[in-house]
Amino acid sequence: MIKYKVIICWSDEDQAFVVEVPELPGCMADGATYQEAVANVEVVIKEWLETAKEPRRPIPEPRGRLKFA
Fold first, then answer.
1. 62: nearest Cα among 22, 31, 9, 19
2. DSSP state of 61
3. Which region, left, alpha or beta, applies to residue 66 given φ > 0 means left and ψ of -120 to 50 means alpha?
4. How far apart are CA 1 and CA 20, in angstroms?
5. What kind and span of H or E run contains 29?
6. Residues facing 8 on adjacent strands
7. Cα distance between residue 24 and residue 26, in whole Å
8. Tens of pLDDT along 8-57?
């Protein structure tokens, strides 16, 4: 299970759900349904991480849930 934070929004322009992974620059996906968009971004996250390993780029650790004082 991948534990990166995702932001899911509906795009009127694209008529699709758009998912962004803020901790992984440029990592985003979309889908016609919420579930499809989440499934697509899981694939893209794995691909992003695999691509980052090739040139030995640093891979951010998932920050998890925000904690408020």
1. 22
2. P
3. beta
4. 17
5. strand 28-31
6. 19
7. 6
8. 999 999 999 999 999 999 999 999 999 999 999 999 999 999 998 877 77
